[in-house]
Amino acid sequence: MSIIIDKIVIKLLSAIMRNLYFVAFIIITVLFSSCGKGGQGELVGVYNRKFRNNKIPLGMVYIPPGRTLIGMSDEDINNSQSSPSRMTSFSAFFMDQTEITNAEYRQFVAWVRDSVAVTSLGPTVAPAFFKAAPKGADGAGALGANRDIDWKKVGSGSLLWSKKNGGMGSKLTDMYYSGADALPGKNEIDIRKLKYAYSYLSSDLAVEGRKDPSKRRQDFIITYTDNPDPSNPNHHPSVPVYPDTLVWKVDYSYSQNDPMVKTYFNHPSYDEYPVVGVTWEQASAFCVWRTRFYESVASARKLPANSRPEYQLPSDAQFEYAARGGNVKTKYPWGGPYVRNTKGCMQANFKVGRGNYSDDGGLYTVNARSYFPNDYGLYNMAGNVAEWTITAYNQSAAPMLLDFNPNFTYVAKTGDSKYMKRKVVRGGSWKDIGFFLQNSVGTYEYQDQARSYIGFRCVSAYPGTDITYRN
Question: TM segments (predicted)?
Answer without folding.
Answer: 12-32
